[in-house]
Amino acid sequence: MTEQEAPSFAIEKLYIKDLSLEVPNAPAIFLERESPEVSLQLQTAAQGLGDDAFEVTLTVTVTAKLGEKTVFLVEIGQSGIFRIRNVPQDNLDPLLSIACPNILFPYAREVVSNEVVRAGFAPVVLQPVNFEALYAARMQEQQEAAGTSPTVQ
Fold first, then answer.
1. Could you read off the pLDDT of 84-138 as tens digits, one per residue?
2. How far apart are CA 56 and CA 41, in angstroms?
3. Which pTM was predicted?
4. Which residue intervals of the chain are DSSP H helices?
5. CA–CA gap between residue 104 and residue 10 (Å, rounded)
6. N or C: lower Cβ tally within 10 Å for the chain?
7. Rounded CA gap, 57 and 138, in Å?
8. How far apart, in whole angstroms, are the C-alpha atoms of residue 97 and residue 46?
9. Is 105 in contact with 113 (CB distance < 8 Å)?
10. Is the C-alpha dihedral spanning 102, 103, 106, 107 positive or negative?
11. For the domain 17-146, what is the CATH code?
């Protein structure tokens, strides 16, 4: 296999595509002494840019609530441009859905923590995410929806 035919994976650029912070109940929310319940939502999206380049965006939404009141909401679209060459089509989706989000997540986690602190709250430290398990669960759901679930005997 020549060097031109060898599979390659490279990070071209990492950047924040979208960032939003809301503290809808300020300033009254700062007088609350209870700890809010924090929830996390993740979403990934990938698109081809041509010439073996792909943009992958990991959207992380962190919402903190006290009962029905929103304490804060942070949403970041952490993106990257990845150059992927000579990778079999079967391996491309796992790369875009597992490897790329694994690269993007630490950057998104840092921005979430920094923004929450800048908003006047204690930092939110997001735990590591197993993107491989999320990908496997999504593939299982798609198989079940298509009625092609493998049978176990």
1. 998 888 889 999 999 999 999 999 999 999 999 999 999 999 999 999 999 999 8
2. 17
3. 0.85
4. 89-94, 100-118, 131-146
5. 13
6. C
7. 17
8. 8
9. no
10. negative
11. 3.10.420.10
